[in-house]
Amino acid sequence: MYRPKMETMTLQEPRYSMIIEWSQEDQLFVVTIPELSELVIMPCTNGKTREEAIINGEEVIEIYLEAWQAEGITIPKAKTLQII
């Protein structure tokens, strides 16, 4: 499993889910972040490769979190996978 190097995120920052899907129409991997879908139009970014899509997704998360924090907007909580 690919795990990108996360230099910009700290341990205190939430970890959001990302869904990476291939778009045949766009010939790109598109990124959806489920926890942000009520505040951001999805898919929110893309990439020519899976790696690029993941990096772009992380950047989008960081940009929105910083903007919402500066504007006093409630930041959506990250969901945690629970296996029962």
Protein model, in words:
26% of the residues lie in helices and 15% in strands. The chain is α+β, with helices and mostly antiparallel strands. The chain has one domain (1-84). A three-stranded antiparallel beta sheet has the order 1-2-3, with helices on one face. A hairpin with a 4-residue loop joins strand 1 (19-23) and strand 2 (28-32). Residues 1-11 have low confidence and may be disordered.
Jot down its keywords.
84 residues; single chain; globular; alpha+beta
The H/E string reads: EEEH
Distance between the termini: 23 Å
Profile the largest sheet: 3 strands, antiparallel
Low-confidence stretches: 1-11
The residue fraction in helices comes out at 25-40%
Structural class comes to alpha+beta
Number of separate helices: 1
SSE blueprint and pairings:
Blueprint: E1 19-23, E2 28-32, E3 45-47, H1 50-71
Antiparallel strand pairs: 1-2, 2-3
